[in-house]
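dumping this here before i forget
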Amino acid sequence: MASLAVIGVITSVAGTVYGAIQSAQQASFQAEIADRNAQAARFQAEAEESRYRRDAARQMGRTRAAFGAAGTTLSGSALDVLADQAMELEENALLIRHGGFVRSTEQQLRASSFRSQVGPTILGGSLQAAGGLASGLNQAGFSFGSNASIGAFA
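structure:
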């Protein structure tokens, strides 16, 4: 009867270890996904910023053309309008870049968080398995100590 108890204990311990390994692998997988999302956020922001800068250059060209068509020279208030427009367009481009940086950083932090779970998950599962092994063997009649006999084998 003790051998059935030992088999049960070993099966339980194996299940605990397997569960810890699966949890660690899941955390590693989630970290990889977050890393890829961080990279995608950077690429997306770069592409969006590039597109915005092209549109901004066209907009600045239209403004200059409108001043030229009206016979306005690019001096004084017309130059101030163009400078203000250029500053606003540049600010918006930098905000797009910053937004991508923030999204990328958030994903990098998520990846780091998932990676930090791997070691403790394995350690916790191993300690739980060891505790379960000791407890189960004790319940199966195995004794531990200096004068202990080995339960079923005594």
